[in-house]
Amino acid sequence: MFPEFGQFALVLALLLAAAQAVFGLVGAQRLDARWMAVVRPAVAGQFVLVSAAMGVLVHAFVSFDFSVLYVASNSNSALPTFYRVAALWGAHEGSLLLWAWILAAWTLAVAAFSRNLPASFASRVMGVLGIVSFGFLLFTLYTSNPFERIPLENVPADGRDLNPVLQDPALAIHPPLLYMGYVGFAVAYAFACAAMLEGKLDQTWARWTRPWTTLAWCFMSVGIALGSWWAYYELGWGGYWFWDPVENASFMPWLVGTALIHSLAVTEKRGLFKSWTLLLAILAFSLSLLGTFLVRSGVLVSVHSFAADPARGFFIFVFLVVMILGALILYAWRAPLLKSQAGFNGTAREAFLLYNNIALVLAALVVLIGTLAPLVNDALGMKSISVGPGWFSRSFPYIAMALLALVAIGIHAYWKRGRVGESRNRHVIGFSLALLAGMAIVFLAYGPGMWQSAVGIVLGLWVIVSSLFDPIDRWRRKLTLSRAVVGMTLAHIGLGVNVIAIATVESYTIERDVAVGPGESVVLGRYAYRFDKLEPVEGPNYEGVRAEITVLRDGRPVAVVHPEKRNYWVQRSTMTEAGIHSLWNGDLFVALGEDLGAGKWSLRAQVRPLIDYVWLAAGLMALGGALAASDRRYRARQAAGEGVTDNTAHAT
Amino acid sequence: MMPRHKRLLMVLGIIGGVGLAAFLALTAFRDNVMLYYDPTDLAAALPKETERFRLGGMVEKGSLQKTAGTLDVQFFVTDYKHTIAVKYSGILPDLFREGQGVVAHGRMQGNVFVADEILAKHDENYMPPEVAKSLKDNPPPPNVPASPEIGGS
């Protein structure tokens, strides 16, 4: 198969995207059914064409077509098949193609499930998505064509191999999941733009938008967690978060997206916060684009900036400005039309959701400042700076604490009118339980640590206990538990677990970097890591050494771990494979450093309590979100314009 | 309380809260900003020993010295105009190599830069953008092998 077919397919897809945008938007404006009828076939055709382009590139990878520059740069004859496929998004060009493909898939889903939306509205949503798709396809073809060929006389005999750090199962699926989230927010963005163009935004609109946004958020949660997990065991850093620009790039849209799904809840249930919801939808997607811009342009100094090319950065920057400014102008023009009518008082559920939104947006702002300050500084021609992790760790946790307290209290509030005293029992019982259990954990299990961690553990427990009251109450009264309620409860428990895990890891990790020889041990609290021996290992495309380390607790062996140091032949790069033994209450972690001479090796030895729960909790949140998004009321066929019928009082 | 007073109090509270938050944020920000220096900057004037900063440049070929059996290393960082000695005790990142770009965090102690963190750049061709810029401003002499190009993993 010729790689040029792939490029040709992309060009055709670009034309279809343009058609989708023009016929979708203009057709809806003219209310011309024949124009609008073009949109769905254009969406389907685009999906087929971009899929074909993906297929051509996968084929080039699997069949070792090193005449394609991208394949030659990111694959090798010794690379296992699984990674040859995953290598498709191992670098810049391919990951853009993946972006475009996922967008095409989301748009196809919108086209399929929007039959019962008003025709002009659905047409506008797909039109806006067409603009996004057009931008990305143009960007791919213009600056980053994955099908570029190497002149025949220069075709290498073998490829330069996939970057060894990317040769890992978690990282192979991390980019697609993250992109599902990024691109999913494009759907929310398109719904917002369409609503503004229609000049109409009601509770039905929120009901259409909510499941899409929640699903995007779920994918993003899992994607971020996988990336964090990967950095933990593959880079040998032994932590879960480093406030690295690339990490922040995905965290900002997640924070704003979290605010968005809660604000949408208010818009759906009460018809409030309309313009705020629109603004959040615009922001969430803008930050997704900004994330792509930060990661792909190489403008930031990051521990893992993969691509660096100012021309690409410039294109994304222009695209970013067009998408954000366009939406904001539309917002300034149209949002004042969308007045919310109903009122609520300062202790109603609406108010608590507003406070939580403010906290989430503030948190995103803190991350944004820390991430962009070096850029702004550079742009102003001042001396190059960087912002250390201290900025984040001195501001973010306090906002998070406020947010957690708001969640724990606000969960009990009623819609519309809340009175401080009405859920007094739940507040008192919930907080007392959390305080007692938290103190027990802090003082009996771990011993005193940082006060912030103690607060975090108590708050995390409080959120969990608080979110359990309502479902237990419903269950005891033999009421049905809708998926929305179960999903929300799961997601909030996930949040609590996540916070408890992070607080514990921050305070009670024991870590030491040491030089040890065979037979020697390093002691970490109750644990001792004994360096037994070192042996050579060989893999399909690397060779290296493997250490055998016995972990003893109170003198008795509990685990044997095998950290490795690998040398990948093709890129001549060295890689660390950490040796990790997971217990139910934490990880025993060893990364092998280097040969220090005199028979000694350097070891990074750590005991990290509860760290796996940081990631498991993200899975719980995503599961909760997926359940809530599949609630009956979103699946039921809705006639256009039908009002809100289902009113489960407590579900948000 | 009159609703008007209540509102006034709320507004004052918000202003006070925002002000306090802004003050705390500014302090935290100032404490955590690190400036970037290359060896030529350091040759002109040394920062105070209390200032933690980023040092960037190339690891000079043949300059890496390890104390056998310990985590202590010493090497020189150069921008081909000036050179500075760096001390570090810890595990070097996988891609730390002589003749490659490096960024280190730490403080001056006398004429030696004592690093507490060496940045892990996971790409054999990777050069921190700041180092690349330094080298562009101070091109290496012709006998030095061409610097690796930026990016392109």
Q: Which oligomerization state do the chains in this entry correspond to?
A: heterodimer
Low-confidence parts of chain B = 122-126, 142-153
- Whole-angstrom Rg of chain A: 26 Å
Largest sheet of chain A, in brief, is: 6 strands, antiparallel
Distinct helical segment count of chain B: 3
* Helix percentage range of chain B: 25-40%
Helical content class of chain A: 55-70%
Report how far apart the termini of chain B are. Answer: 66 Å
Strand content of chain A: 5-15%
Structural class of chain A: alpha+beta
How many alpha or pi helices of chain A? Answer: 19
Distance between the termini of chain A: 51 Å
What is the mean predicted local confidence, pLDDT of chain A? 89
Using only C-alpha atoms, the radius of gyration of chain B works out to 22 Å
Beta strands of chain A, count: 11
Secondary-structure element string of chain B: HEHEEEEEEH
Order of helices and strands of chain A: HHHHHHHHHHHHHEHHHHEEEEEEEEEEHH
The name of the CATH architecture of the largest domain in chain B is Beta Barrel
Summed up, the domain count of chain B is: 2
Structure report:
The complex is a heterodimer of chains A (652) and B (153). With 652 residues, chain A is α+β, with helices and mostly antiparallel strands. Chain A is built from 19 helices and eleven strands. In chain A, strands 3, 4, 5, 6, 7 and 8 form a six-stranded antiparallel β-sheet that branches. Chain A has a four-stranded antiparallel β-sheet with strand order 2-11-10-9. In chain A, a hairpin with a 2-residue loop joins strand 5 and strand 6. By secondary structure, chain B is α+β, with helices and mostly antiparallel strands. Chain B folds into two domains: 1-33; 36-137, Beta Barrel (OB fold (Dihydrolipoamide Acetyltransferase, E2P)), CATH 2.40.50.140. Helix content of chain B is 29%, strand content 29%. Chain B has a five-stranded mixed β-barrel. In chain B, a hairpin with a 5-residue loop joins strand 3 and strand 4. The longest helix of chain B is centred in the first third of the chain and has 30 residues, at 3-32. Chain B is elongated and about 80 Å long. In chain B, 35% of the residues are buried. The model of chain B is unreliable at 122-126 and 142-153 (pLDDT under 50). The A-B interface holds A 73, 91, 163, 165, 235-237, 298-299, 301, 303-309, 366, 369, 373, 383-391, 394-395, 513-515, 517, 571-576, 591, 593-594, 596-600, 602, 604 and B 24-25, 28-29, 31-36, 52, 54, 66, 68-71, 90-92, 94-95, 103, 105, 119-124, 128-130, 133, 150-153. Strand 1 (385-387) of chain A pairs antiparallel with strand 1 of chain B, so a sheet runs across the interface.
